[in-house]
Design brief:
Layout (H helix, E strand, L loop, with lengths): L5 H19 L2 H27 L2 H8 L6
Helix pairs in contact: 1-2, 2-3
Length: 69
Amino acid sequence: MSDELPILNRVYDVYKALDSVNDKLPKHKRYSLGSSTEQTTLSLLEQLLMAKHAPKSHKAGFLYGHKHS
């Protein structure tokens, strides 16, 4: 993973930490706050990966949250 961008590694580390924290949350929080936070983190990771592999002219769109087809 040495060719990965540092931000990708950090966001993935956050996702792994959230996963272990979610296991310790009370059930009602796990399926609301925990799930929402996990989905947001996965979305961020997806956008960063798409930006990394997108043509240079499309990178900013992924980083600003605009999806390209």
